[in-house]
Amino acid sequence: MAGKPILETKALHKRFGDHHVLRGIDFTVEPGERVAIIGGSGSGKSTFLRCLNFMETLSEGEVWLDGTRIGVERKGTVTYPEKQLCQVRERLGMVFQQFNLFPHMSVLDNVMEGLVTVKRMSRPEARRVAEAELAKVGLSEKHDAWPGRLSGGQQQRVAIARALSMQPEILLFDEPTSSLDPELVGEVLRVIKQLAEEGRTMLLVTHELGFAYHFATKVIFLAHGVFHEVGTPDEVLKNPRQARTQDFLRRFGEFAF
Amino acid sequence: MDYAWDFGPVLGRFDMLALGLLNTVKIAAVSIVLGVLVGLVLAMMRLSSRRWLNVPALVFIEFYRNTPPIVHFFWFFYALPVMLAISLNPYVAAVLALSTQSGAFYAEVFRGGIVSIERGQWEGGRALGMTHSALMRRIIIPQAIARMVPPFIERSFELLKTTALASTLAYADLLYQAMMVNAETFRPLEVYTTIALMYLVLLVTASQLARLAENRLTAYQ
Ligand SMILES: Nc1ncnc2c1ncn2[C@@H]1O[C@H](COP(=O)(O)OP(=O)(O)OP(=O)(O)O)[C@@H](O)[C@H]1O
Ligand SMILES: [Mg+2]
């Protein structure tokens, strides 16, 4: 794939105080790519994903979206105006481990919220879009339910519908199945697989290595703040070249591809 | 005990007690409204990251939490007029004392409600592209209000009971009126029993109304 990157990071660093979590990451995503990010607990996978839509502020480095650098540079210092960050976040949908649905709104209102508040769509129009997105994740009968009354798998599917409603160019998933009971993982992975078949550009942080193998076009092993090994699923998950990747995969034991 | 109960004289002056009850309700209602305004301002100052807003609000709140309510009544009635070379009537002084007191406590109720909302709620809204103010308005404040209701009601009940201190400034609230009726009738047992029951009815009625409001605001939980 030799297209124009839609998302790019250059020498991205992130520190929390003295803790240097990301140590210079250069990364590109092209339209239609599906990237799985794996790595040990605390290695900075979530932090990396969260830097892309500025849930975390960068310590150093650049993020480029569709050929435009995010942030405004003036006299050597970069600022990030709220308005610009809001636009970036609108274009990068995010799905969280803990769903983060709004408990005081019905399922339908959760999915309509961004359309009405951010995209300034009329309520009837937003409703049509939201209903279509909920149908897509198989939750048409749950419109009027409170999110708190749904199973974890259903909640995560609502969260995916909410992210999709904004028509994002890229989807970011941060361990979308890690807080689900094992029997509910499948229904969420099926939805993600369906999105893959539509050719969407996606980044997925996951511990489900078997799923990552089938899902991804590119796999990244993150360790010690850098992309330690990058390649196709076969290269990274089946024939890793780096000793540290081999170690990591061994510790995960056998997983079925 | 061979005391001969006789509510006759007290009920004969029930108009005075009714006026007192009305004044108690009035001063409580006005002080709750003003207290909410004071509380909102203080809460916003406390939530600010700017020290020059944060620290004065903290000092104000701690002052009120650590001094007896009756001192505030005396300060506004006897001390403030000296400082400003004005005179305050008992009503104004009592409202000032009650609304600043309750404002200090409401501020902590409001702030507590806001900070109790999980980080994930902020992130869920932010990830959709919502601005800070939209997030506050649509996501954070509606949920925070539901959590503020029980402590808010509790504080308002405190305030309702504290209004009785206004009688020490000769404000014609229910307690003060009772003292007047007692002075006329020499029937302390009947007078103070009657007003205790009137306070009870007032507070029980208020708590029923509060419960209705609470159920509506916390329906989703
Ligand atoms: N807000 C924060 N303040 C301070 N340290 C943080 C913060 N967020 C993350 N960290 C630290 O940064 C490191 C990377 O965290 P991160 O959550 O990105 O790891 P992760 O790879 O996603 O791990 P996991 O698999 O457990 O989700 C950890 O050591 C974590 O403690
Ligand atoms: Mg993580």
UniProtKB/TrEMBL annotation, chain A:
<dbReference type="Pfam" id="PF00005">
    <property type="entry name" value="ABC_tran"/>
</dbReference>
<dbReference type="InterPro" id="IPR003439">
    <property type="entry name" value="ABC_transporter-like_ATP-bd"/>
</dbReference>
<keyword id="KW-0472">Membrane</keyword>
<dbReference type="InterPro" id="IPR017871">
    <property type="entry name" value="ABC_transporter-like_CS"/>
</dbReference>
<dbReference type="InterPro" id="IPR050086">
    <property type="entry name" value="MetN_ABC_transporter-like"/>
</dbReference>
<keyword id="KW-0547">Nucleotide-binding</keyword>
<keyword id="KW-0813">Transport</keyword>
<protein>
    <submittedName>
        <fullName>Amino acid ABC transporter ATP-binding protein</fullName>
    </submittedName>
</protein>
<feature type="domain" description="ABC transporter">
    <location>
        <begin position="7"/>
        <end position="249"/>
    </location>
</feature>
<keyword id="KW-0067">ATP-binding</keyword>
<dbReference type="InterPro" id="IPR003593">
    <property type="entry name" value="AAA+_ATPase"/>
</dbReference>
<dbReference type="InterPro" id="IPR027417">
    <property type="entry name" value="P-loop_NTPase"/>
</dbReference>
<dbReference type="GO" id="GO:0005524">
    <property type="term" value="F:ATP binding"/>
</dbReference>
<keyword id="KW-1003">Cell membrane</keyword>
<comment type="similarity">
    <text>Belongs to the ABC transporter superfamily.</text>
</comment>
<dbReference type="InterPro" id="IPR030679">
    <property type="entry name" value="ABC_ATPase_HisP-typ"/>
</dbReference>
UniProtKB/TrEMBL annotation, chain B:
<dbReference type="InterPro" id="IPR035906">
    <property type="entry name" value="MetI-like_sf"/>
</dbReference>
<feature type="transmembrane region" description="Helical">
    <location>
        <begin position="191"/>
        <end position="210"/>
    </location>
</feature>
<keyword id="KW-1003">Cell membrane</keyword>
<dbReference type="InterPro" id="IPR043429">
    <property type="entry name" value="ArtM/GltK/GlnP/TcyL/YhdX-like"/>
</dbReference>
<dbReference type="InterPro" id="IPR000515">
    <property type="entry name" value="MetI-like"/>
</dbReference>
<keyword id="KW-0813">Transport</keyword>
<feature type="transmembrane region" description="Helical">
    <location>
        <begin position="20"/>
        <end position="43"/>
    </location>
</feature>
<keyword id="KW-1133">Transmembrane helix</keyword>
<feature type="domain" description="ABC transmembrane type-1">
    <location>
        <begin position="21"/>
        <end position="210"/>
    </location>
</feature>
<keyword id="KW-0029">Amino-acid transport</keyword>
<feature type="transmembrane region" description="Helical">
    <location>
        <begin position="73"/>
        <end position="98"/>
    </location>
</feature>
<comment type="similarity">
    <text>Belongs to the binding-protein-dependent transport system permease family. HisMQ subfamily.</text>
</comment>
<comment type="function">
    <text>Part of the binding-protein-dependent transport system for glutamine; probably responsible for the translocation of the substrate across the membrane.</text>
</comment>
<keyword id="KW-0812">Transmembrane</keyword>
<keyword id="KW-0472">Membrane</keyword>
<protein>
    <submittedName>
        <fullName>Amino acid ABC transporter permease</fullName>
    </submittedName>
</protein>
<dbReference type="Pfam" id="PF00528">
    <property type="entry name" value="BPD_transp_1"/>
</dbReference>
<dbReference type="InterPro" id="IPR010065">
    <property type="entry name" value="AA_ABC_transptr_permease_3TM"/>
</dbReference>
